[in-house]
Amino acid sequence: MIRAAETDRTESGLIDFSDMPDLGLSEIQRFLDRQQGMEGFSFTGLMEDLLKGNLESAGARCLSAFRTGVMEEWSDSVGFLAQAAALGVLGAVFAQASSVFPSSRISESVFFITYLLAFACLTASFFSSVAAAASVVERVLEFMKVVLPAFFLAVASAGGSLSGGALYGSVIGAAGIAEGLCGRVLLPLIKVYVLLVLAGNLSREAVISRMTKGLESGIRWSLKTMTGLFFGLQMIQTMILPYADSVKRAGIHKLVSAIPGIGSGADALIQVTVGAGVLVKNTIGGAAVVVMVILMAAPAAKLLLFSVLYRAAAALMEPVCDKRIAACAEGIGKAHQLLLEVVTGVILLFALSIGLICTATNAVYFGG
């Protein structure tokens, strides 16, 4: 059976990625084997499925990894979903208690007791979500540090030596900036945002609402600025460097083809070699994007659902309970949306970057 499969592969002319340890694919596989929910997921198998156009098999691999990640991610979150539902009950209890004592301090005391319970419930749920978002950002950045050497080695083998060296430095620099900005600045700022929301709703009058809105806008603008600056730099580099490699390769192409006797054969061999390099490069890039989506899919679904649930809880509590508790639930929903934007922003930063580099460096092959 094994010999027959090897014979079929050889006859079909497809590349055997498992026989390419020099590209660093073994390092990528070791990284995936260490990740929770990715045990048994084969990176080279995914690349071969994409190369053959076998989307059914590739989709089955991704669905299996996603299902495992969802089960492990949500196993710790069932309690927090129950806590989110309990917010409505707490709000209704407070509303009934305050209606019994309309002119007494007991009403305010009951509110503070209820508010402290809601505070504990909300912060426990939210800090779990922050930990999940931080884990996703860390895993994606670690994966990029593992996959980038293999990807840019394939870029260089496809004739983009100048492009590979320059773009590798810029993407590695972007990974460092994203790690510092998202992991050490934005996620702690989102925690501060939640604390400001909960503290600001203690009083009946809005005291720090402008500070809260300003912090929310600052987090979003920081993400947009990081993405815009990085893609601006990438656009400038990909407008110039791949075509410089293309000109260099065209000169070598003309020089080799001018050699009497062996020129045409050597030129054809170079063309086939560069084409194989382009194929490997694009396949590694496509598989890397798929793996990044798998890494973030389950936590992102959790953050999205929590954002919707808390906003729905706020909408349901508004007619029957104190508006301050409803405002807290709505603020936690917005905070989950900010976490989701940070996670998806990091994924899009690198996924679009890989796609842009794959498309731009193809000019080296077609220009020859």
Describe this protein's structure.
Helices cover 86% and strands 0% of the residues. The chain has helices at residues 2-12, 25-34, 43-52, 55-74, 78-100, 105-157, 161-200, 209-257, 263-317, 323-367. The longest helix has 55 residues, at 263-317.
- Whole-angstrom Rg: 27 Å
Average pLDDT over all residues: 77
SS element count, helices? 10
Main pleated sheet: none
Distance between the termini: 41 Å
By DSSP, the count of extended strands is: 0
- Quaternary state of the chains: single chain
Share in β-strands: under 5%
Question: What structural category do the secondary elements indicate?
Answer: mainly alpha
Element-level helix/strand string: HHHHHHHHHH
| Unreliable spans | 1-13
In a nutshell, what does this entry contain?
The protein is an all-alpha fold.
Keywords:
368 residues, mainly alpha, 10 helices, elongated, disordered N terminus
Question: Could you outline the blueprint of secondary structure elements for this entry?
Answer:
Elements: H1 2-12, H2 25-34, H3 43-52, H4 55-74, H5 78-100, H6 105-157, H7 161-200, H8 209-257, H9 263-317, H10 323-367
